[in-house]
Amino acid sequence: MIRHYEAIGLIPKATRRDSGYRDYDEREVHMLRFIGRARDLGFPISEIGQLVALWQDGDRASGEVKALALARAAEMERKEHELRAMRKSLEDLARRCAGGDRPDCPILDDLAIGVEHVSLRCVKEKG
Question: What is the pTM of this model?
Answer without folding.
Answer: 0.69
